[in-house]
Amino acid sequence: SQQGEEDPQALSIQEGENATMNCSYKTSINNLQWYRQNSGRGLVHLILIRSNEREKHSGRLRVTLDTSKKSSSLLITASRAADTASYFCATDARGNQGGKLIFGQGTELSVKP
Amino acid sequence: DGGITQSPKYLFRKEGQNVTLSCEQNLNHDAMYWYRQDPGQGLRLIYYSQIVNDFQKGDIAEGYSVSREKKESFPLTVTSAQKNPTAFYLCASSIIGSGGNEQFFGPGTRLTVL
User: Fold this and answer.
1) What is the residue-averaged pLDDT of chain A?
2) Between A1, A41, A98, which is nearest B48 by CB?
3) Which end of chain A is more exposed for a tag (fewer CB within 10 A), N or C?
4) What is the DSSP string of A6-25?
5) Average pLDDT, integer, range B49-57
6) Is B108–A44 a contact, with Cβ atoms under 8 angstroms apart?
7) Is the Cβ pair A98, B104 closer than 8 Å?
């Protein structure tokens, strides 16, 4: 079952602009993670935010988590053409076994030079 | 050089044939996972394994089978019972624990049924 819903499905911006992607989920979570996928490749882990955290930074990435609204956002600042990829949120649901994650449908980001 | 590998990169199958996709990791991770990804879609879990000689069905296990005889290896067999097997298959591994369950992914295998 797909827990995460991502918004927008596709986003096109110019280099240097900021990109914001949103993720909503349905159940209580232990943590929420963001991954990046270049076309035809495997996913790469970007950042993990725990349920008791509200904001986290990693380089040009900023992630927020609002557990009351069951939503998260990923902000990429000063975007570059190399940021062009699909971005997925994934949730580790509370009570989950085996380290399973539930992935959203993804946001396809295109950064034009 | 630690990581997770998948082979082959591309695989073609005739209808009615079983095919096996390889997944190997040298990260010493206990857990391994198989996902299916269709064009423009997210990942759907096929099977996962937390420990050697044990595995569980995911959301779309019908038509697939797995084995976990070694910690490093988690091969996936796509059987003839899988009616629409053309897809991109991704294998992942992770540590299970309170430190977080970040998953490490292989490069994927693209399966096409002819």
Assistant:
1) 93
2) A98
3) N
4) EE-SEEEEETTS-EEEEEE-
5) 95
6) no
7) no
In b/e form, how buried is each residue of B8-40, taking b as 16+ CB within 10 angstroms?
A: eeebebeeeeebebebbbeeebbbbbbbbbeee
pLDDT in tens, A43-89: 999 999 999 999 999 999 999 999 999 999 999 999 999 999 999 99
In degrees, rounded to 5, the angle at the alpha carbon of residue B71 between the alpha carbons of residues B68 and B77 is 30
Q: Is B104 helix (H, G, I), strand (E, B) or coil?
A: strand
Asked if B110's CB is within 8 angstroms of A43's CB, the reply is no
Is B42 in contact with A97 (Cβ distance < 8 A)? no
Contact call for residues A15 and A109 (beta carbons, < 8 A): no
**Between residues B82 and A76, which one has the greater pLDDT?**
A76
Candidates A100, A105, A107: best to mutate against B (most CBs of B within 10 A) is A100
Measured CA to CA, the distance from residue B54 to residue A10 in angstroms comes to: 39
Contacts of A76 (CB under 8 A, 6+ apart): A18, A19, A20, A60, A61, A83, A109
Judge contact between B98 and B79, C-beta under 8 A.
Answer: no
Q: SS3 helix, strand, coil % of chain B, rounded to 5?
A: 0, 50, 50
